[in-house]
Design goal:
Quinone Oxidoreductase, Chain A, domain 1; Rossmann fold; 2 domains; seven-stranded mixed beta sheet; 10 helices; Alcohol dehydrogenase
Length: about 350
C-alpha cells in the first residue's frame, strides 16, 4: 500500500570532510531519486530529526571504538528521527499512517528496515519527545551513581540536550541540591527559572574550580558529566568522600577545533580519587539494554505529570539544517535541537 509520493527525495550530505569543526559549507542539500520500496522495509516520511554533536566525531579522524559508521565526503548524514510510514510491501508488520522512530534522519524520506524501525505507541504525549536524548542521563544516574535523598548533584553542560534533562531527572530521583554548568549567563538564568537548578557555575574567565567551590561549599556527591576537561578536574576537587562520577560525554574534546573529535584528555588527581574513594565510570547504553524502555515509560509519566519538561528548539525546514549543526556546536541553542520538516 502506497501514498502519493514525490519523484525525488532531498537529503543532507557531507559535501567535504572538514578540517576542524564543520561549517555550513561542508553540508549540502541534495536531490536524489525516491528510495525504491523492497521487502522487509518501509518507506517513512520524516517529520522530525535530532541534530546531535556526535556527528562532529563521525566526521573527524578519531573514530576508533565509536559504535557508529564514519561520515566521509558524499555520505548522507543520519541520526534519530520520527516520521510517518507512507509505503509498505505486502506482508509488512507496519501500516501506512503508523508513526515510527528510526536512525535515518537528515532526509525527507527514508527507506528503513523493519528491524530498525520502532512503532510509537503513545507512551510519550508528543512524538517529538522520542528524540529527547535522556536515556543516557537516566541510565547513568540509576545504574552507575544512584541518587540518594539529599545528594548534591553536579551536571556539566547543563544547558545542552542531555544536561537539560539530567538535572531534572536528578531532582525527581531525590537530589537535594542540583548544580549545573554552562557558558552563558542567559542560559544560566533559564536553568534556574525554568528547570529548577539551585545554582549554575559559569565557565569562562578565571578559575572554574573556585566558582564551583562557591556554588557547592560542602562538596558534591554525584557528577553527571557531559563535558570533561577542566570541569571534570574541578569536580574531583569538590568531591565528597564516596562521591560517584558518571561520564556520558566529552564535549570539551569532541567540539575542540584542535582535536579530531574522538578524544578528550585531562589530568586527574589520582591521589584525591584514592583518599576520597571516588568512583569514576563511563556509561555505555549497550551495557544496559533495558534502560531505553524503562526511561521511555518513566519519561512519559513525568511529562504528563509536569515533573519533567523536554527543552528543545525546533528548526523549520531541511534547508536550515546545514546551519543548525555548526550553531549547535557553537552553543547557540538551549536544550536539544530538532529539525521539523
Amino acid at each position: 500500500m502506497t501514498a502519493v509520493l514525490p519523484r525525488t527525495n532531498r537529503e543532507i550530505r557531507l559535501a567535504a570532510t572538514p578540517e576542524g569543526l564543520p561549517r555550513p559549507e561542508h553540508l549540502a542539500v541534495v536531490d536524489t531519486p525516491m528510495p525504491v520500496l523492497r521487502p522487509g522495509h518501509v518507506l517513512v516520511r520524516n517529520r522530525y530529526f535530532l541534530v546531535f554533536p556526535g556527528l562532529r566525531t563521525l566526521m573527524g579522524d578519531e573514530i576508533d571504538g565509536v559504535p557508529l559508521p564514519p561520515l566521509r565526503g558524499g555520505d548522507t548524514l543520519f541520526g534519530p528521527a520520527v516520521g510517518e510510514v507512507v509505503a509498505v510491501p505486502p506482508g509488512s508488520p507496519m501500516r501506512v499512517g503508523d508513526t515510527v522512530s528510526h536512525l535515518l534522519g537528515w532526509r525527507d524520506h527514508a527507506l528503513v528496515a523493519d528491524a530498525e524501525c520502532a512503532l510509537l505507541d503513545g507512551t510519550l504525549p508528543d512524538p517529538v519527545a522520542r528524540l529527547a536524548p535522556g536515556a543516557a542521563a537516566y541510565g547513568a544516574l540509576t545504574r552507575l551513581t544512584g541518587v540518594r535523598e539529599g545528594d548534591t548533584v553536579l551536571v556539566t553542560g547543563a544547558a545542552g540536550a542531555v544536561g537539560s534533562l539530567a538535572g531534572q531527572i536528578a531532582r525527581v530521583l531525590g537530589a537535594g541540591r542540583v548544580i549545573g554548568s554552562t557558558g552563558s549567563p542567559e542560559k544560566a538564568a533559564r536553568l534556574v527559572s525554568e528547570l529548577g537548578y539551585d545554582a549554575v557555575v559559569l565557565r569562562g574567565t578565571g578559575s572554574f574550580a573556585e566558582r564551583l567551590a562557591g556554588a557547592a561549599p560542602d562538596g558534591i556527591d554525584v557528577l553527571l558529566d557531559t563535558v570533561g576537561g577542566e570541569q571534570l578536574a574541578a569536580a574531583l576537587g569538590a568531591a565528597r568522600p564516596g562521591a560517584r562520577f558518571a561520564l556520558v560525554g566529552a564535549l570539551s574534546g569532541q567540539l575542540s577545533p584542535e582535536r579530531g573529535g574522538g578524544s578528550a584528555p585531562v589530568p586527574l588527581d589520582t591521589f584525591r580519587l584514592v583518599v576520597r574513594g571516588v568512583s569514576v565510570r563511563g556509561y555505555r547504553g549497550a551495557d544496559h539494554p533495558e534502560v531505553d524502555a524503562e526511561w521511555t515509560r518513566r519519561f512519559g509519566g513525568w511529562l504528563r505529570s509536569g515533573e519533567l519538561s523536554f527543552p528543545h528548539t525546533r528548526i523549520a525546514g531541511l534547508d536550515r539544517a546545514p546551519r543548525a549543526l555548526p550553531d549547535l556546536i557553537e552553543g547557540r541553542y538551549f536544550g536539544a535541537v530538532v529539525v521539523e520538516l
